[in-house]
Amino acid sequence: MDLVPFDFTSQSASTRPAARRFRAALLAGLFGLVAVGPSQAATPQRQTKSVPRPFQVSSSPAGNYLSALSAGFQRDTAAASTFFREVLRHDPRNAEIIERAFVATLANGNVPEAFGLAERLVARDKANGLGHLVLGVRAIKARQFSTARGELAKSGSNRQRDITAILLGAWTYVGSNDYKRALDTLDQLKDPRFAGFRDYHAALIADISKNVPEATKRMKAAYESEKNTLRVVDAYARFLSRQGQIEEAKKVYQAFEELVPRHPLVASALATLDTAKPLPATVKNSQQGAAEVLYGLGSAGNRQGDELAAVIYLRLSQHLEADNPLAIVTLASLYENLKQYEAAIDIYETMPEQSPLRSNADIQIGLLLETLGRGDEAVKHLVAMTADHPKDTEALNALANLQRSRKDFAAAVTTYTKVLELSPANERSLWPVYYFRAISYERQKMWPKAEADFQKALELFPNQPLVLNYLGYSWVDQGLHLEEAFRMLQKAVELRPTDGYIVDSLGWGHYKLGRYEEALRELERAVELKPGDPTINDHLGDVYWKTGRKLEAVFQWNHARDLNPEPDELPRILEKIKNGMGDDVKPASVTEQPKNGG
């Protein structure tokens, strides 16, 4: 859904100095605040696996202020909020420090503490939209719906454009049992861009009020415009199931499965529907409805690149409904994208144990541990997970990928094989498992088994460019099936023309066939696309040598040496740097192929 985030600057610039500072902070990355240290919004259900970096406040207000700014640039909101609050303790009337401490504290998930800062902020800047939004959310949580509407009314002068205030305002009328006013409020959203969002929330409200005809009309409209949005798909299917339309609900989920196979939430819902039981409603009261608004705005802000707004919406959504698994995943994924891995682990660990997404959260924790350089702990975590859930193919696949990335290829083969044994035969989505098992075989010099898996991957997914590239390159490198290999590489480049690795493979194919001018053209382009790859630079050096550009060849080999090549490649590169290649190496012939075909 194409949404406009909360308008923090809807009033005139002359009356909004604090709002200007807030927007400047957003644009300049003053806090970079979005993703950061551990949240205090919810207590993890398990012992945390994240190990946040310790920090100490200074006795100097100036030192703490500089530390707060530094933490903000590093996107460490835990530190930023701590340092700004310490500065505020020494300068409690400074409106700018109040605002910065407020935003940092809110982004870090300390929502109850942010409420107090919001009060102090709006006392000094009565038009601060974010402050009033936060106070409005507090009032919704306390079921003080009239108060909430009063706070939301102060969020901007043009309420037709203020989607946040309109949507939340509609849910406050639900809390007051005024369903007609709630729907009328939503219908203020005339902009076609908001139609799907408007109809979705109207359907939820009509459902709560037991207005089945209106709920049906609105839910169908939302679904027709958002068939690829899981939350809308799930809500529509749940609604159908509670109207006795179990088979229709199944069809809605099955249509989504064609786009995203085996999604855990969909699989869980279908399992329930197979027992002919209806599914509970997505939203059951005004507080959950308001949380749904904030989750939707956070998701939209994340997609549109407004990370600070996204994290604030998601934090507020979690304050109203802590157990929404999609909000947890969205927030944690946002932290991952911003390379705030400790914070992401903290959020994933809040996933409820009974959620269908608990397994996915645990898998992501393992992968993040590896990203943090805690590889042994990551393997231990995923091994324990697969021991507890031996038929969880997603967990097994994650473990296999981790083993492969750590070059434990024998273990990876064993684990990939378990995945295949537990999966339906010949399912197209299994092509990556065969592909990665093939790589694991190939790295162990077990070429016949690798070749068979590459070919199986192509059987499941013909013209898959990664498989075409790897198999075609391997055949070319071994002098096998050169005509077929060359066709594979040409097709792979056609499908992925800006992939430096694939362009390199085509160039290497030309080289192996003695087509040095064609090889030179492709390999120079490959180096432009992937200048930091040692193998591509090594290959370009070889073709320079063959075309008589021997000084340039030695330069490329030296460059390849300095780019940390594989240990088994380094001696060969050093030998070429010292002695060159010689001029008696014959190119492979497309008619001189080994009879065994590899």
SSE topology:
Elements: H1 17-28, H2 61-73, H3 77-90, H4 95-107, H5 111-124, H6 129-141, H7 145-152, H8 163-175, H9 179-186, H10 195-208, H11 212-225, H12 230-242, H13 246-259, H14 264-273, H15 286-303, H16 307-320, H17 325-337, H18 341-348, H19 358-371, H20 375-388, H21 393-405, H22 409-422, H23 431-443, H24 447-460, H25 465-478, H26 482-495, H27 500-512, H28 516-529, H29 534-546, H30 550-562, H31 570-579
How would you describe the overall organization of this protein?
With 598 residues, the chain is mainly alpha-helical. Among the domains are: 157-322, Serine Threonine Protein Phosphatase 5, Tetratricopeptide repeat (Alpha Horseshoe); 374-462, Serine Threonine Protein Phosphatase 5, Tetratricopeptide repeat, CATH 1.25.40; 466-598, Tetratricopeptide repeat domain (Serine Threonine Protein Phosphatase 5, Tetratricopeptide repeat, Alpha Horseshoe), CATH 1.25.40.10. It contains 31 helices and no strands. The chain has helices at residues 17-28, 61-73, 77-90, 95-107, 111-124, 129-141, 145-152, 163-175, 179-186, 195-208, 212-225, 230-242, 246-259, 264-273, 286-303, 307-320, 325-337, 341-348, 358-371, 375-388, 393-405, 409-422, 431-443, 447-460, 465-478, 482-495, 500-512, 516-529, 534-546, 550-562, 570-579. The radius of gyration is 29 Å and the shape is globular. The model is unreliable at 1-45 and 588-598 (pLDDT under 50).
